[in-house]
Amino acid sequence: MARSDKNLQAVVLCDTYLPRFMPLTAHKPRCLLPLANTPLIEYTLEFLVNCGVSEVYLMCCAHASQVSEYIKSSRWVSPFVPFKVQTIELPNTMSVGDAMRDIDSRGIITSDFLLISGDVVCNIDFDRVWAAHVQRKNEDKNCIMSMVLRKASALHRTRSNRTGLFVVDDITKRLVVYQRSILQKDIDVDSSELLKLTNVAFRNDLIDCRIDICSMDVPALFTENFDYEHLRDDFVRGVLTSDLLGKTIYAHIVDDGYAARVESFKTYKGVTKDIVSRYSYPLVVDSNVVQGKSYMYQRGHIYKERDVVLSQSCTIGMSTIIGSKSSVGDSTLVQGSVIGRCCAIGNNAVVENACLWDNVRIEDGAQVRGAILADNVRICKDAVIEPGAVIGFGVTVEAGTTVPQGARIHAKNRRSSSASAKSKSKSESESGSENGDESDGYGYSDSSAVISNSDDDEPSDTEDLAALVDEMYLSDESIVSLDHRKLAATRKPRRKSRTMSTTSNFSAEDAEDDDEEFVKEAITSINRSIVDKHTQDVAILELNTLRMTMNAPHEKVQEAVVIALVSHIGHLITQSDVKSVTTNVFTTWSPLLRRITFDMVGQTNLAAQIENNCAGMLQGERILAFALMTLYDTDVISENAVYAWHKQPEAGSQVRQLVDQWVEWLENAEEESDDE
Amino acid sequence: MSSKGDINTQISLFLTQLKRRQISGAKEVALATANLLIRFISSRRWVSTTAMIEQIRILGAKLVDAQPYELTCGNVIKRVLKNIRTINEAFAPKGNKDTDLEEDLNPSSSMLGLLSVSDSMNTSGDGDSSNNSSMANLTKHKSNEAEPGLTPSGYYVSEEVRAKARDLRNAVIDEIQSLIDEIQNDDPLFKAGIDMITDSDLLLTPCPSSKTMVDFLLKAAAKRNFTVIVTESYPNNVEKAKKMVQQLKNAGVKSTLIPDAAVFAVMAKVSKVVISARAVLANGGCIASSGVAMACHAAKQFTKPVLSIAGSYKLSPIYPFDVESLIEVGNSSKVIDFSDAELMDKLEVINPLYDYISPELIDIVISSDGGASPNFVYRLILDNYSEHDQHLSSVEIGAA
Question: Which residue stretches does the UniProt record annotate as biased composition, category Low complexity (chain B) (predicted)?
Fold first, then answer.
């Protein structure tokens, strides 16, 4: 192998400069988060051992000192490790681009090197990848990068739905187009580029494992283009779209071996499952590669370390890992979960498909399903944690509370983890009582802990949670089937694929093309306002302009607004309950609705529109009911309009059930006041 | 002590290689273990066999824990321990006479010389015979145990004792060297095996992954004229099965590759089933690659003889109380493709790499010493291992 006589260098990007693992990454760097009870970075370094790397540079930004400490005290500094590890702390970098520019300025790279993310789990045969890269370089002098991509499928549990679309020349494997996140519905491809090629593959089924073999030009290119921030979005796209540069990037698609990357909570769970079910063999839990681990395998993918205490009456289901010194109480069910060291699970509790890190306490009768609980979390008696919840370091969930789906809770006091032990004991002493608003309250109750519905701080993060709902995948699938002529023809990129679920609504009526066009445009405009948080005035102005230019009737404006709002709600309810979301959205947008609703007919029409849109939606009846109530409360719709609408024949099948009750109540209230 | 740092590095390296499965296969692991033991023993100065036994046991426990499924690693260590003990037992009664021992040139005698110099030291480990150990020796033992791995500094060890220590070391290394030769030399094994095969035999082998099996069949083909049926061994060894058939074809052996499901169907015509064991256990049962047990059950049904081929380093003093703990589970993606998202979500896959074959299913165990009935394996094991070394570590599998 050409590699053995060469010095292969590896640059590990320990930080992704994205807040996807918040709130957990507030305390710990992402690469030290435990995956199946082993810090993430261990998997990456294990892979590098198999690659035959001789020098490793760890580029750390957030909590860089923690990474350095960890490496210093780990086995990676011992003399039998085949490579030298060097941590480079870059506290001032803001993006991957900065890190790459730093590499360039240090001049440490001497030849083609391996650029890898610090969260990769992989067991592929790297020699073959390297050989292929060398061959490509011989054939194409301009090749500056080979990306390793694992064939999976569009809906794979280990594939992030943020992974882009790769358009690859099927013969040479040259990457032609890289399209960021497929959530954009249309892709923009220069057809002239494609016509030159005989076979083109549009791949939306790949796992981008961020294992790249780069030439020395790559860091230099980052320095030249000082505005490059992201490796894929900026650099790869930049290189591919640039006519002047003339550099090429190749995709190395592997279809055997395991390769995945832990880049979001969704993939975190997916990769954990894969490791437990031994898809990553020999990188499995019971190989105990990290010192001090003592896992033994038992039939049914159960891994137990030494000194585990299990009650005789507890049930340990398939695919479970239990760390040393943990205990499980009477009649408790543990299934499909990862349990760290020193965890205590009480009696009659349920732990399913959850990840518990170290020192977690789950008291009697509590139920934890599909959640991630960080170190030192305490779940008090009979609390219920619903799927997708993430509970940060040292949080206590009060007895009997329910943490809703997809909630992310972290301790308000983020100062230092050393303080947590003290305050934890404090909150313990007052367990049972409402934790109130103490400054160091670690408890979860609506006031004291901070629940971030991540939608507020980072819009793209919602995809993670929405990914729980299968319908989100609709757009992902459909793109696979599009033929490239059609793709090349559609040049008008739409903002968000979230409107996908609603497109079916208006595509049904194909009569008036212009109005159709208007509705589409209007929806896009409103969505933009929602996402970018424009003020109502801006939104109204935009809508009016649109209406004037396209000469659309008022009904169409209403239609567009309602479609946009209802679909927006549809996305939000995956994280929160219907009532609050619906009320919230309609209250916020009531001024706009008032501006586009003029008379009784308009009001009736508005109600009918909402009904049409709610029909067939998940929880549609509830959305409809709460929407009408809110509009009634905010005086957008008058009582009479409600009655008028209610007299109309029912559109959807069962949507009106809840509303009927409310209308009845309205009528009664009316009569009563009349009587008086 | 530079040499000590060196050997520790080598041990750690070997441990991680075992854990990463970079060293795998019964023979390869056995040889690597033996070579490591030579380096380990030559890196230190030993004053007593007790200390040596103790140290090797500690090392052995670590190695066994690192890869509990590779039984040959433990076997080699236990064999070496037995050798050290045997030397002592054989010569301890004569240990009082210094003089003739000095002149004796065989390795064991230099060991004896050591014994005599250290004043009738009780060299046997762990409760082995001899009861005349003096106080001085006890303290000496203690100093060894207190600082494992460190040679007691020379201030109270005479030059003569040091010379004896060298001899002891050399003696043990010679023993290990001959063990390595034995592991490498499969000829006696093959010779015994070929005696069991006759012309015009129709052999079935469900072990295409075994290199020993390929070598054996090629060797036997030179002397006998037979036909071989190889099972596909899905999912773990399909490639190897194809390769094996190819190799046999190239050597002019008539061979056929059949799917595993066809084993029962062809069994009626088969004259002998030949399997290659990864390990032979104390009860005469075997661990072999998965699919073998099925073939053996079919053979039982048709009362066809089953020959198990295993070099004597594969004899293992472990009794299979907990069979599952001896069987490693391999890569699930061999069964369900990783890109099949839907199946992956809905199914849990368990892909065992090995099978346990109980002794009733095996007719003859062929080792380097010739053929033996499975019932007789316990004798072979008694010959090869000391009862004190049955388990090196507390968590060793099968120890339950």
Answer: 121-135
